[in-house]
Amino acid sequence: MKTKTFLLLCLFLGVGLTQLSAQNGKNGTGTIVFTFENDYWSPVFCNGVQVDVLEGKLTSQVVIHAEKGQYKWYMLHWHGELISSLNQEVFQIHESDKIDIPKLGDWSYHFNLVGNKGSHYINSGTLNTDTWNVVVNKSVCLAN
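Below the sequence we write its predicted structure tokens.
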């Protein structure tokens, strides 16, 4: 998660700074959309307890929104396959993350993981990238 966050912040700042003036709309208002591939690592929680760690290379669609020349938020939409460190189960992931500006350290996330051995996890919550503390607001877990 730390590596993912650091790389994403560098990527967002680089792309955002070079493309802000190219936005559609008036007075620096609009969105920038692009796709990239990145290594991914994430814990999975059930009832507040970490039960697994998933890793893999995913594709992410990034949406950066600005109003009047100021960044307001980023959205990340992750898709692809991840591997469980617990039992090598392969998961299809659909995840959405939202990062509000200027609160870059607080990410809200929601993911839906469906495994090829019958496991299914739905988690949502927040991640504080300053402390790496994850607060799970919701977890639905059907583990095989």
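Strands lie at 30-46, 49-67, 70-84, 90-100, 106-115, 120-128, 133-142.
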